Amino acid sequence: MSRRPVLALTTGEPAGIGPELAAAIATRRGDLRLVLLGDRALLTERAAAVGVTADWPDYTPDRDVPVSLLHRPLAAPCTAGTLNPANARYVLDLLDRAVAGARNGEFDAIVTAPLHKGVINDGIGGKFFYGHTEYLAERTGTEQVVMMLTGGGLRVALATTHLPLKDVPAAITVESLSRTLRILHSDLQTKFGIRTPRILVAGLNPHAGESGHLGREEIEVIVPALDALRAEGMTLIGPLPADTLFNRKQLEQGDAVLAMYHDQGLPVLKFASFGEGINVTLGLPVIRTSVDHGTALDLAGSGRADPGSLAAAIELAAELARHRG
Q1: Which of 6, 101, 113, 301 pairs with 164 at a CA distance of 20 to 30 A?
Q2: How confident is the model over 115-160, as pLDDT tens digits?
Q3: In this predicted model, what pLDDT tens digit does every residue of 260-273 receive, in sequence order?
Q4: Record-annotated residues binding substrate (predicted)?
Q5: Residue 127 is assigned to a ligand binding site
Q6: Is 162 annotated as belonging to a binding site?
Q7: 117 is in an annotated binding site
Q8: Do 1-142+284-325 and 144-282 show the same overall fold?
Q9: Does the annotation list 132 as a binding residue?
């Protein structure tokens, strides 16, 4: 990419820490153009909490400045730390504008500050809102996406995400696992610039099933899926026992790990990178990264929230945009 990538940063739940993190990040200069999406008065107020002067110019596509603001008005007054369902539509409007800009080439990537699923469901009624990832998939017409977190030198993708543990085995099929691995493999190539990705695949059961004595999912589902994909040319290592997968020697053999469920892979990654982890949504037609934390209502407006994860998400989004060209 010969020009500086243009990143849309949605500032998230207005009562949370997203607006002040965005204001703090906006003081950092890099080889990119950052467009803040949010209410100008709100961001000016939260900028003061972190000692920043909110002098960002209004965004226009042809204005080549390090930071600009695309003003979208709040639907209702907002107090730091106090959720207001009346602003649910405002939060979704930020996402809709970012997606529209990314789809038409106006933005090279989207970075999202945290939102609050509960208050959005309270505010919009009707169709249930599951979260950023599912909403972006719907808005872009994407049938399946894959959640991957990066940080601490690790990339950990998930075969299943926010499911009760009792529902995980049934959700892992040869077909679903194959789709997930194809998305992971493709995005490691096209977005991360890894020509021949090596993927470490965890087993589902303790000791990867111990030859069927501790469960048959490895034998009946995971191994058949991996064998078929290996025949297509993918480099897949596993299924590996999850309790020994995350050691330095093993991890050096792979570019990413595929864990079978949320709490199998993410505790290790968050231990290695807490406060600076990044959530990447794979499979979308646009680049999207996010923080690995929530709205932290108790910190909102205090100026004490750590912008490390948001800074890392912005840096990675810019890097992925450059890979993609």
Answers
A1: 113
A2: 999 999 999 987 888 889 889 999 999 999 999 999 989 999 999 9
A3: 999 999 999 989 88
A4: 132-133, 270, 279, 288
A5: no
A6: yes
A7: no
A8: yes
A9: yes
Cα 140 from Cα 117, distance rounded (Å): 19
* Domain ranges (residues) in the chain: 1-142+284-325, 144-282
Is 63 flagged in the annotation as binding?
Answer: no
116 has binding-site annotation: no
The dotted CATH code for 144-282 is 3.40.718.10
